[in-house]
Write a structure and sequence with these properties.
By secondary structure, the chain is of the alpha/beta class. The protein contains 16 helices and 31 strands. The chain folds into 2 domains: 247 residues, TIM Barrel (Alpha-Beta Barrel), CATH 3.20.20; 209 residues, no CATH class. It is 25% helix and 27% strand. The strands form 6 sheets. The protein has a 10-stranded mixed sheet, with helices on both faces. It has a 6-stranded mixed sheet with strand order 3-2-7-16-17-18, with no helix packed on it. The radius of gyration is 24 Å and the shape is globular. 58% of the residues are buried.
Length: 573
């Protein structure tokens, strides 16, 4: 046996293949595992470094089974700086947000940036851009030829979440072109199908076959999807997840189809304070999942799902030497991180990526006025009140509800009612098409002022919420002025901004700087009465995500997600 560069002794190796803990030693050569076993003395050479693990558990580097750089507001480099010291060493990345803005050129740019870090980022090609054609507009429309272009990039594994489940169930011709082509080549296809059950679920899975889902709304739904041959992704992070991971695990004799992911749903503040995948692992352990099963869900299970277990996900010969030193499996406190056989020494700083100028000038929207935000009552109604559909937002949740509320009409104009927490919401197309929707939302709690951002998931249009039309127009104009970002406005003098220059949705500022700017935005909003723990999250995901139930809005109108249809603002009463 060749001599090792490093031998780790006095550790407790977590075997994710047999779910046991072994008092074994680990030898590493050229960044890969060379030996695991009771005694690595045959691997010792005169220059071998001996690492004393001091009784720590040796855990494979964690893999986020489904993730998005863009949802964290960080591009690839600062994302890696934030997550690597916390034990995330690999991730399956879906770049559908930047593709919505810049097409496959945006995906290629993120891949190029990711190569500047040791995080093992594996990419998938988004097939649903915009996520719901006919219901919204984006900067790009992905067809089979675009998917083929994206699959030529490296490292690309397959197809990202097929989120327009209605198009697939209806056998939309273009979606079938894409899925038929990838099926013939045996490529994996990720899913996204909340509340799709029974015959519709079979109809959804079959064309791919679509192999994963991360959007179930009940444990029964998750079990059904496992029975139908899918991998179920359990999501944890900064948002409230109503489903019990412990119940799911307890109801399955075989948990190899369960994966763990963050899915971009985590704030940079939580990353820095609690970890990334480390936080997700600890959360499900706290819920009652056995630590060894939780670790499998974050290592070997996703590695096998994506055909990567010959590279990562297990401490075994020939695999990358990505190891975590963990003092307590239940607390999951990562003390040291090794990537490719080298210890990371935080704080990390990697070279920034030079994006082309056109990727930094993506908000093609002329300034707006308060008149652009007027909601006119139904024809013939001058005063009184009118029944309207309102998007009900819940703190920390992706799912919304449809609320019917009566709002005042004065001189033919419908107003919001901050006293009832019903505020004006607006979505403006930012790709030069000139379309917009103005409606109403409940749950933000603003008594005054407004905020807006170029981060309306998934098509990344400009979205805003306000208690005052003039302030809402000013907040949108601040976003236009920055060429992307988030802005809070109150009156003529109060401005708080967070620039997001890369495609209008990301920054390459350090994680610490981003955390400071996010905190300033939140503080400004809380001072205006905002009731949400993470208002930026709600602005980005709760209003415009037209593939998550129930009522959302796009630049084309209010969207009933489960029907896949535009519905009128005014409700019949």
């Amino acid at each position: 046996m060749s001599r090792a560069d490093t031998v780790i002794r006095n550790g407790q190796l977590v075997s994710v293949t047999t779910r046991e803990v072994l008092r074994w030693e680990v030898a590493i050569s050229d960044g890969r595992i060379a030996y695991i076993g009771p005694d690595a003395r045959q691997s010792l050479g005169t220059d071998t470094e001996i690492v004393d693990a001091d009784g720590a558990y040796l855990v494979p580097g964690l893999i986020s089974a489904h993730d998005h750089y863009e949802m964290t507001l960080m591009s690839a480099v600062p994302f890696a700086e934030a997550v690597l010291p916390q034990g995330t060493t690999a991730a399956i990345m879906d770049p559908h947000d930047i593709v919505n803005v810049l097409g496959m050129e945006g995906m290629r740019a993120l891949i190029d940036e990711s190569r500047r870090t040791p995080l093992k980022a594996f990419f998938t090609v988004p097939p649903c851009v915009p996520p719901a054609p006919g219901l919204e507009d984006a900067g790009c429309e992905v067809r089979l030829e675009d998917v083929q272009q994206g699959l030529a990039f490296s490292p690309v594994l397959g197809i990202a979440e097929a989120m327009d489940f209605q198009r697939i169930i209806r056998r939309d011709p273009e979606m079938m072109r894409i899925l038929d082509w990838v099926r013939e080549r045996g490529l994996p296809v990720d899913g996204h199908c909340p509340e799709v059950r029974g015959a519709d679920l079979c109809q959804y899975i079959a064309p791919g076959p679509i192999r994963t889902d991360h959007e179930s709304t009940s444990v029964d739904e998750q079990i059904e999807k496992v029975r139908q041959g899918m991998y179920v992704v359990v999501r944890r992070g900064s948002i409230e997840e109503p489903l019990s991971a412990a119940e799911l695990v307890d109801r399955l004799d075989d948990t190899s189809s369960l994966l763990l992911a963050v899915d971009g749903c985590i704030s940079v503040e939580d990353m820095l304070a609690h970890g990334h995948m480390r936080y997700a692992v600890r959360q499900i352990i706290t819920e009652g999942v056995d630590p060894l099963i939780a670790i499998q869900m974050a290592t070997i299970n996703p590695a096998r799902c994506y055909g990567l277990d010959h590279q990562i996900g297990v401490i075994a010969p020939g695999r990358s030497a990505d190891l975590l030193f963990v003092n307590d499996l239940r607390l999951f406190d990562v003390s040291r991180v090794m990537v490719d056989g080298r210890f990371l020494e935080p704080p990390l700083h990697f070279p920034r990526h030079p994006y082309p100028q056109h990727a930094l000038a993506t908000v093609n929207l002329t300034p707006v006025t308060a008149n652009d935000l007027l909601v006119r009552a139904p024809e013939g109604q001058v005063d009184g009140d009118v029944a309207v559909r309102v998007i009900g937002v819940h703190d920390g949740a992706l799912v919304t509800e449809e609320i019917i509320a009566r709002l005042p009409v004065r001189a033919g104009i419908v107003s919001g009612d901050p006293q009832q927490d019903i505020l004006k919401a607006a979505v403006f197309d930012r790709y030069g098409k000139g379309t917009r929707t103005v409606a109403f939302v409940r749950g933000f709690g603003l008594r005054d002022g407004a905020f807006a951002g170029s981060i309306g998931q998934d098509s990344q249009n400009v979205v805003g919420v306000g208690a005052c039309d003039a302030d809402l127009a000013c907040a949108i104009n601040e976003v236009i002025r920055m060429n992307g970002g988030v802005a809070v406005v109150r009156g003529d003098s109060e401005r708080t901004t967070l620039p997001l220059p890369i495609a209008g949705i990301m920054t390459d500022a350090s994680p610490a700087e981003l955390a400071q700017r996010r905190a300033a935005i939140a503080t400004a909003l809380w001072s205006l009465g905002c009731a949400l723990a993470d208002p930026i999250f709600a602005l980005s995901l709760a209003i415009t995500l037209v593939v998550i139930p129930a009522l959302k809005m796009s630049n084309r109108g209010l969207v009933d997600v489960m029907r896949g249809a535009i519905v009128p603002l005014f409700a019949e009463q």
